[in-house]
Design a protein that fits this description.
heterodimer; A: alpha+beta; Immunoglobulin-like; three-stranded antiparallel sheet; 4 helices; B: Immunoglobulin-like
């Protein structure tokens, strides 16, 4: 019990570093920087202003609830125009892109994502006026989506 | 034609954000699964979602294989006048879905 607690807590804080080998076997971490650069076009990416609600430990990687809140007045002059989600260990790291505007009123999205293993989930927000902000969150996934178990399931 | 659920508040205040919830019934096949004979099941995901309010675009999304089966989306919207909120989506096979709800500005 103590050992398990230790593994879970270190896994949640250190993220990828403290993982059991079996969880790392299937999907290698991919470099998502090119994907981010594709969105930003090389513009600087700041941090802050993004709140991401994700469980620290997700038991089922096939459906992980996720809520994103981006700080913005959401006026025609100053609003969030898009929110991107990237999961570096997923076979296809581009999870989703949402396009918003001043008529959204609030830059807030809830959805459910698949995560193929413990990883960092990246949220990139694009603001009007070509500004960008990013937030990364560690999620420990005990039962990964895709691949191995998906095949066993069928 | 695909099914799903669309939920908006019974009435909204003018210019005040309200939450729109969308649930689409779709397997979101990743293309990584195999059937009983070991044959790969082709990828089929809802790749495009478009939401309009009274005819003008409000929200859109491009989804990937990283979204769960029966994708759920919740987002915010504002209305100046009553109108119909329409959610349209299409998947890799070209199948389309459409849901509509009346937004009433009180």
């Amino acid at each position: 019990m103590k050992r398990r607690e230790f593994l879970v807590s270190t896994g949640a804080t250190l993220g990828l570093a403290a993982l059991p080998a079996a969880a790392q076997k299937f999907q290698p971490v991919q470099d998502i920087r090119p994907l981010i650069a594709q969105v930003t076009g090389g513009a600087a990416v700041e941090s802050g202003g993004i709140e991401v609600e994700l469980p620290a430990i997700a038991e089922n990687g096939n459906s992980v609830p996720m809520r994103i809140k981006v700080e913005s007045p959401m006026t025609p002059q100053d609003h969030v125009s898009a929110i991107h989600i990237f999961a570096e260990r997923n076979p296809r790291p581009s999870v989703a892109t949402f396009h918003l505007g001043a008529r959204s009123g609030r830059a807030e999205i809830s959805t459910r994502v698949r995560l193929a293993g413990t990883q960092k989930v990246t949220v990139l927000a694009a603001y009007s006026g070509n500004r960008f902000r990013m937030k990364q969150v560690d999620v420990l996934v005990t039962s990964a989506a895709c691949l191995d178990e998906a095949m066993a399931e069928t | 034609m695909m099914n799903g659920r669309l939920q908006v508040p019974p009435s909204v205040k003018k210019g005040e954000p309200f939450e729109v919830r969308v649930l689409m019934q779709h397997p979101m096949e990743t293309g990584f699964r195999r059937d009983m004979n070991g044959k790969a099941i082709p990828t089929n995901i809802v790749n495009q979602v478009r939401v309009t309010l009274a005819g003008s675009e409000l929200f859109s999304a491009e989804l990937g294989t990283g979204l769960s089966a029966n994708p759920y989306l919740a987002f915010y919207a504002m209305a100046d006048a009553s109108g119909e909120l329409v959610v349209e989506w299409s998947d890799d096979r070209g199948e389309k879905g459409r849901m509509a709800a009346q937004v009433t500005v009180a």
